[in-house]
Amino acid sequence: MRVLVVEDEPTLCRQLRTTLEGAGYAVDLATDGEDGHFLGSSENYDAVVLDLGLPEVDGLTVLDRWRKEGREMPVLVLTARDSWSDKVAGLDAGADDYLTKPFQTEELIARLRALIRRASGNASSELLAGDVRLDTRSGKVTLAGEPVKLTAQEYKLLSYLMHHKGKVVSRTEMIEHIYDQDFDRDSNTIEVFVTRIRKKLGQDVITTIRGLGYALNDPEDRNHD
Ligand code: CA
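== Winged helix family two component transcriptional regulator ==
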């Protein structure tokens, strides 16, 4: 999952990047509204953390522009302490949630997780596909109840596929959502991660659809054919 953070306070910026990367997200940063708007318009993010008080273009305007352009990614707005008018304005402009500064980064992570889950139509924080279970809260994966150790990149890839169960995900989409902007995006590495995940969770867990991409294989889906 890839997240954009638009925030102009350097300390908070660094703190958010460290926490989000630690929680398994690929993170891009923008420190003013103009930059933030550009990235949110041109890249595909699974969620955005948007400060309202920003240089160049303020956060509300940025959000309003995205929504008018048809960008639908979930947006969590950061507001100044006790500014209820900011919260109302943020929600009116199309924010999906808000947090008042100062906040605990744990709360931010929990809210982002919920936003991303809801946006992909998953009500529960545990995602299932056959014998594979992925707990989005703890970041743990089990196979038939047994814990399986995945590397950070393997987890990101599996998590993206599990959030989009029943869909074919192209290699390009995968690259866009599991790497940040600065990552050396070699599409061959996706195939390497898929191979490693298959070794750990079974050959059938991910299906390659030639020319299109990958899909998570959920045995229960076959019942609906
Ligand atoms: Ca600010």
